[in-house]
Amino acid sequence: MLGTDIAIDLGTYAVKVYVEGKGIVVNEPAVVAVRTATDEVLAVGSKAFDMLGRTSDQIKVIHPLTMGVISDFELARYMVNYYIQQL
């Protein structure tokens, strides 16, 4: 991956990752599911999105960006790192 250009678009509703020569390789919802008692990240992207409205009070599905601005820096950082590791 070294020497390959990538672009990351962090949107309020979606995260897109573009890799030179491959195009858009990630197009996922910008959400993270977290266990409230421990702050453990349980899921990112579409897996977290699928949890919306289907979990107990012990799990929150969070949008780390609100109105185009990072509202939860740690979860936004986790989400970016997660998608980069998927490349």
What does it look like?
This protein is an alpha+beta fold. The protein has a single domain (6-86), classed as Nucleotidyltransferase, domain 5 (2-Layer Sandwich), CATH 3.30.420. The protein is built from two helices and eight strands, in the order E-E-E-E-E-H-E-E-E-H. It has helices at residues 46-49, 73-86, and strands spanning 6-10, 14-19, 23-29, 32-35, 40-44, 59-62, 65-66, 69-70. Strands 1-2-3 form a three-stranded antiparallel sheet. Strand 4 and strand 5 form a beta hairpin. The chain is elongated, with a radius of gyration of 13 Å. The N and C termini lie close together (8 Å).
State the end-to-end distance. Answer: 8 Å
**CATH hierarchy: architecture:** 2-Layer Sandwich
Structural class, from secondary structure content?
A: alpha+beta
- Mean pLDDT comes to 93
The unreliable regions are none
Percent of residues in helices: 10-25%
Largest sheet: 3 strands, antiparallel
Radius of gyration: 13 Å
- The run of helices and strands is EEEEEHEEEH
CATH names the topology as Nucleotidyltransferase, domain 5
